[in-house]
Amino acid sequence: MKDTKDSPEYLAKKRAFSKMLTLYGRKPVLEALQDPSVTPFRLHLATSNKPVTLLDDILLLAESKGAEVRYHTRDALSRISKNSKQDQGVAIDLQCPGFQQADDFLAAPPKAHFELLALDGITNPQNVGMIIRSATAGAIDGIILPEKGCAPIDPLVIKASAGTVFKANILRCSSLVKTLKQFRQHGTHVYGLSSHADTTLANLTSHSANIYVLGNETKGVSKEVSELCNKHIAIPMNNNVESLNVAVTAALIAFRTVIR
Amino acid sequence: MKDTKDSPEYLAKKRAFSKMLTLYGRKPVLEALQDPSVTPFRLHLATSNKPVTLLDDILLLAESKGAEVRYHTRDALSRISKNSKQDQGVAIDLQCPGFQQADDFLAAPPKAHFELLALDGITNPQNVGMIIRSATAGAIDGIILPEKGCAPIDPLVIKASAGTVFKANILRCSSLVKTLKQFRQHGTHVYGLSSHADTTLANLTSHSANIYVLGNETKGVSKEVSELCNKHIAIPMNNNVESLNVAVTAALIAFRTVIR
């Protein structure tokens, strides 16, 4: 029987796939496996790999943690890693319980007044990683990360996140505009961060679920997303400083109720 | 007459020198000169430089902003830039009005209950730059930056600071331990940031001038400095995240009164 886009089988597969993070590269894969909080699902190895100790270590650790092991041609492995230049013949699917589709989150949110960040065109992996680290440590229920326009979760992001990405609540979506529309239809307020806004983060009084949109490092929040925002908010700055680093802005939002 | 360490002439020179930032490299020097808030004092060029447009641009801009121009042998220029590998035959002394010796700040603080950050072994230029940017934008009166142990203010720091270093209040000192002792003798409270501390940033009630010490990215605040702290404070974290990025911690301190 073939899965159709509406069949329970298709949706279950999609859901399981959403919770999976595929990582590549020998050192990144080994380091992920060494993290006690990480559960591997499937290890992928290229049959072209020459035997080296590092690969033995990866294989032993993956098997001891219950991962299935599969061997592929070099080409097939490239299609799994989606990065043939940096995969070094190794990829791994990790189970990330905090990963899900944004619409699944919306269908069953963990609380009425949830607080989310949404990333709109954040291209620097260092920033994406730092945002994930601060949001996971702070009072944020999830990070909406669109498939396109942002730095993908790769070894650079994982490093900058100090490994917190594996336990982060990442809400995946294909189109940020479409997802924000859905959330707004359900009463969620959407705030765009902008250094030019009149309302400040301190003045924000809200009794709803909220999404804070963080925009591109240079251009800020995109026009299409800006038009979907209920309001734009700023963080007041001294000494004519023009803007804050976007990961710092994310941290101030994530911790503003924690540090007061 | 020779200057002695106590003579008014020596102290005046030392004071003027404290306010000077020497920067090197063609692109960094040009970018600094293009910043309208930057006042150059003296441009240094190696006589070995081959004529190129970029150098003409630097020379014209420096002269139009009233800088003195001096030519040096390649070796002499290296001694000025202190980085012969990256200076590209160009260095510049910039006047930074917010730079001063930490003991000069202590002798005449701008307010009774000032708030300072102190950097103890922060070696990543990206972190030092981001800390300067957040502190300058936030409610921090100065950053104590010891001569040794931290990343020096170089092109990488300037870039990560988004150019805010030129207007930052940087309090220089030769020994952080000695400087913190002096501040404590004058009634300033010193807090070391530590993820293991019982007191949280939110619980901190203080009616004094304060210094918040940020430690090395891996090892935290050093033992000698820890012993000088009145108290250690933590920022509470969710999801068993072990630590925050040090620049994020700095931003939370700098903005905690701004965003509440």
From TrEMBL, chains A, B:
Keywords annotated in UniProt: Methyltransferase, Transferase
Highest taxon, organism lineage: Bacteria
Any one GO MF annotation of this record: RNA binding
Annotated GO CC locations: cytosol
SUPFAM superfamilies assigned to the protein according to its UniProt record, in alphabetical order: alpha/beta knot, L30e-like
GO aspect biological process, one term: methylation
InterPro entries per record: Alpha/beta_knot_MTases (IPR029028), Ribosomal_eL30-like_sf (IPR029064), rRNA_MeTrfase_TrmH (IPR004441), SpoU_MeTrfase (IPR001537), SpoU_subst-bd (IPR013123), tRNA_m1G_MTases_N (IPR029026)
Pfam families: SpoU_methylase, SpoU_sub_bind
Domain RNA 2-O ribose methyltransferase substrate binding: 22-100
Listed Gene3D superfamilies: 3.30.1330.30, 3.40.1280.10
Protein name: RNA methyltransferase
Species assigned in the record: Marinibactrum halimedae
Top-level taxonomy: Bacteria, Pseudomonadati, Pseudomonadota, Gammaproteobacteria, Cellvibrionales
Gene: yjfH
